[in-house]
Amino acid sequence: MKSIKWGVWLTKPFVFFTALMVIKIFLARFVVFDSSSMWMQLATGITSVWVLFCLIEWIAPRRKLGVYLAVNLFLTTIFFAVIMYYKYFGVIVTYHALQQVNQVTEVKGSVFSLLHPYFLFIYTDVVAFLLLFFSRRFRTWGKSLAIRESNVLISAIFLLSLAGCFTNIWIHRDSINELKQAENMGILNYEAYAVFASAMKDVEDPSNITPEAIAELKGEQQPAVPLYWGQAQGKNVIVLQLEATQNFLLDLKIEGKEVTPVMNKLIKENIYFPHFYQQVGQGNTSDAEFVVNTSFYIPKHGAAAQDYGDLALPSMPKVFKEHGYQTATFHTNDVQFWNRKELYKALGFDRYYDSEFFGGEDMVFFGSSDEVLYAKTADELLKMSQSGKPFYSQIISMSSHHPFNIPERKVRFELPERYQDTLVGNYIQAQNYTDYSIGLFIDKLKENGLWDNSVLVIYGDHLGLPIYSLSDDEKNLMKEIYGRDYGYTEMMNIPLIVIDPSAKEPQRLNQTGGQVDIFPTIANLLGISLEGHIHFGQDLLNETSNLLPQRYYLPSGSFVNDKGIFVPGLNFDDGTNFPYDGGKAAETDSTEDEYNRALELLRLSDSYVSQLPKHE
After folding, report:
1. Which of 71, 178, 180, 52 lies closest to 125, judged by CA?
2. Phi–psi pair at 460, nearest 5 degrees
3. How far apart, in whole angstroms, are the C-alpha atoms of residue 233 and residue 39?
4. Per-residue CA distances from 613 to 39, 48, 292, 309 (Å)
5. Which positions ≥6 away from 50 have C-beta within 8 Å?
6. Would you say 19 and 6 are in contact if contact means Cβ atoms under 8 Å apart?
7. Burial of 426 by CB count in 10 Å (0-12 exposed, 13-18 middle, 19+ buried)?
8. 317 in Cβ contact with 327 (< 8 Å)
9. 3-class secondary structure, 508
10. What is residue 297's DSSP assignment?
């Protein structure tokens, strides 16, 4: 008799689908919150599920199986999206990412490479129900479930669950770290909270956002006579953005063979910044273009090109144009990707060159190879120089795009067996090809006479090897490369090389820098004043201290300073320091004042940009 009673209870959709959701909550916990209490995840997660299930029992008692199946699919997709997004960005995805859905087809290779087979286990029940739906017996059973459960019981569960959800959200609403918020609220509660939280904006009056206020927050001490001022005045400027290039590649040898011989030579003969860091978010490559050309921070949610693409942005192309420069940007992909067509209007580039210009020659991933990019771009730059006006050009490389499995015809670096068929090994081969192509570009610039009259700035757009995506074997390979565990300070570190053929001597400058600093650094070299121009970066040739707020790849509240990276816990007090070069962390590595100033810098940037007028 008891077994019959249990059987009846287990066939009730509320109980049955609760059991399925428990499995999925645990799977998400295993991937995202590995160190979190299993029971806390269950307690915070199941209450939000029960709120929805109670609503089904009230609203759709006669069609409950179909509605349960639909809600099960919806919640499963949320958990799946959270897992996949975390594996690349290391943060919790929210509804804001829906505006990027149309980009997935372009980067499907990257998406599939992140897809571990056990992630698909989360959809096992969905597939099973889909197959069962063709069974008449299953449909008949579904109709038999069309009964109304005890209103008292459902009401009690609903009220208790709703109270639990509100309590979890309220208690943890002030945590700055999105990962900690989601861990403590529960994933579904956090997703609901994100909808309401995004409507609350703390906007500063633009009149209070001044260069002086920003300089004070950053702790800048500008010299009366800046070093290198106007050293490259009137020269062409070529800014080369490298796809997914991290700093550890430079000077790296694997079994005696250099991975980046061209860039190794460049850093020994020019100005090199080894402590330089990415500042991008959801938009990755396009975010880097935005940050470098504006010296603003990325938006709180979404990609800069999509959130800010319709604004009249103060920018490097516009400032340089006022000083007699012509401007252009080069990218082998379609200009519509990541809303670049609007972004380039917003930035004020005179013209852009995309797949229509480069064609479909020698395709690698979703555009012509870097060799084609550089060959055709060098020819076009020569034409631009013949106008008698200097040019500012930005060039976006793409052949070393995730998942880095470049065509065999492009492979020039032979890997040891332990690196073969790994993400790390593929990455090294792709970056070796990137380096080789840069060498061809430099040769072409020297050949056509542009080299001696140009400043070349080379930097990485974003990381290539997220910690969250690496297997244990791949992490061991990174440990072999670094001689220590691969962590945040290594992951976020990208190269910056400034090349001026007329410079007197090479320098290795160890001050901390970020992509937001490129615009003011180049302006100093050209002798172009940014006085009165709102920007959040600083001239790296004249500042030895820095504060770089971070978003997306690290939780909000994270920042880079002169000693390393700080990542908050619930807030500053329980945060963690990650020193440069594997050093030992100390409490003095970061201060609460830096933490508050970093958050204020982000708020001022968000406020300033969001209140800019629309472009024509």
Report:
1. 71
2. -85, 145
3. 63
4. 49, 41, 20, 11
5. 18, 157, 158, 161
6. no
7. buried
8. yes
9. strand
10. P
pLDDT digits (tens, 9 = 90+) for 278-288: 999 888 889 99
Distance CA 435, CA 515 (A): 20
- β-strand partners of 254: 257
Helices and strands in the chain, H and E counts:
23, 17
Give per-residue burial for 377-390: e unless 16+ CB within 10 Å, then b: bbebbeebbeeeeb
pLDDT tens track for 569-596: 989 999 999 999 888 888 889 999 999 9
Q: Rounded mean pLDDT of the chain? A: 88
How far is the C-alpha of 427 from the C-alpha of 433, rounded, in Å? 10
Q: How far apart are CA 593 and CA 599, in angstroms?
A: 10
CB 510 within 8 A of CB 563: no
> Could you check whether the bond before residue 506 is cis, i.e. omega within 30 degrees of 0?
no
Dig out the tokens for 396 from the structure: 């976006």
261: Cβ contacts below 8 Å, ≥ 6 apart: 435, 439
Q: Which amino acid is at 229?
A: W
Helices 13-32 and 2-10 pack at an angle, to 10 degrees, of: 60
- Rounded to two decimals, the pTM is 0.89
* Alpha-carbon distances of 452 from 6, 324, 380, 390, rounded to whole Å: 83, 19, 17, 13
Strands 564-567 and 559-560: antiparallel
Strands (E), 30-182: none
Q: Which residues contact 90 (CB under 8 A, 6 or more apart)?
A: 179, 466, 467, 468, 553, 554
Closest residue by Cα to residue 599 from 175, 184, 199, 232: 175
Please compute, for residue 119, the number of CA atoms within 13 A of its CA located in the half-sphere on the CB side. Answer: 20
Determine the Cα–Cα distance for residues 237 and 517; give it in Å rounded to an integer: 16
Amino acid at 568: P
CA-based nearest residue to 314, from 209, 455, 386: 209
User: CA 344, CA 325: separation in Å to the nearest integer?
Assistant: 16
